[in-house]
Amino acid sequence: MDDQAYVFAAARADLWDSWPRLPRRVRELVGHYWHVREDDLASRDTFSAMARAYAASSDGLYRLPEDVAPREAQYLVVAHAQNPLKLAKELVREAEELFYQARSPLPVAGPGQWCFGGRELSVVTIPDSEKDAQVRPLPLRTAAYRPTTAVSRKQVLRLARRQAAADPDRYGWKPGLMDRFFDKLIDADDHPVTRLALPAGQIRVLNAPTGVGKSVLMDAIAPLLAQQGQGPIAVVVGQIHDSLRGAERIQADNDLVRQAADQLAAATAGQDLRIVPLVSPYRRTEQAERALTQGRQTVSTGWPTAVTCPRG
């Protein structure tokens, strides 16, 4: 039972073969829980310690067996008579209320010089104009459920051609690269692929050598899906630098097309993109070292992603 509970606490539904067959309402409820749960629960030791402490509490909805020491417990005894799903729905609702109440603007460093980076210090100077600045939490709207999302070869090539027409020197290579990419793209059965289908709850692996266009395709798919109202779209990368550069690149691509193609601007007037690099507080040292090495005075922190979503 501890193993099954941990699968949910750690958001490791990939370890359970029956997960895709659960009713959608149950999977959505679990998704709401994952959104507000503490990240530390992904640690098996942290989860087990918390579960035992909770079970030893007199207010807990589950109890330790009377004849088992807390550190040796492998299962819990139900101490309530409620429907499990109804109980879970109510607990998740309460957790969401607390989560959003705590998402107030975060204070940031004020004007002056600030040092960071451990033994090899880096110094950042913040101007007086940034006095009383705050970092507001980024709200993300969840798009309506779709069993499958798709992007066609035609859509990707149309976007690439518009970019090339707007700035031939900078983007003239892109249509040819995307054309060659799709010419060689095949599925697991060696059939040509002209439409990328992305089913909900599953992973599509795109395997190709370096330099053939995977990143270019990713940069095209993100704004295309967002403009179709299928966002927010999260692009996960491995380095903070990749996150910031990727967000800048997608934003620049989108701005270029909007400036040069009146037809596209009219077609997507209500879907203006907002490109935001997201980073968590666990990678400060890495970015500080990068800033120190490159002689830069701009610092970001964390586990990187770039999120593309419609404004509004």
What's the SSE blueprint?
Layout: H1 2-9, H2 24-36, H3 44-55, E1 62-63, E2 77-78, H4 84-101, E3 106-107, E4 112-116, E5 122-126, E6 134-135, E7 148-152, H5 153-166, H6 168-171, H7 174-184, E8 195-199, H8 214-227, E9 233-236, H9 240-260, H10 262-267, E10 273-278, H11 284-294, E11 305-310
Antiparallel strand pairs: 1-2, 3-6, 4-5, 7-8, 9-11, 10-11
Helix pairs in contact: 2-4, 5-7, 5-8, 5-9, 8-9
Contiguous runs where pLDDT drops below 50 for at least 5 residues? 296-312
Q: Helix amount, in percent?
A: 40-55%
* Number of domains as seen in the coordinates: 3
The SSE string, one letter per element, is HHHEEHEEEEEHHHEHEHHEHE
What is Rg? 24 Å
Q: What's the rounded overall pLDDT mean?
A: 76
Number of helices: 11
How many strands in all? Answer: 11
The shape is globular
Percentage of residues in strands:
5-15%
Strands of the biggest beta sheet: in what spatial order?
9-11-10
Structural class, please? alpha+beta
Measure the end-to-end span.
43 Å
Largest sheet: 3 strands, antiparallel
Task: Walk me through what this model shows.
The chain is α+β, with helices and mostly antiparallel strands and 312 residues long. The protein has three domains: 2-101, no CATH class; 106-135, no CATH class; 148-310, no CATH class. It has helices at residues 2-9, 24-36, 44-55, 84-101, 153-166, 168-171, 174-184, 214-227, 240-260, 262-267, 284-294; strands at 62-63, 77-78, 106-107, 112-116, 122-126, 134-135, 148-152, 195-199, 233-236, 273-278, 305-310. The protein has a three-stranded antiparallel β-sheet with strand order 9-11-10, covered by helices on one side. Strand 4 and strand 5 (122-126) form a beta hairpin. The longest helix has 21 residues, at 240-260.
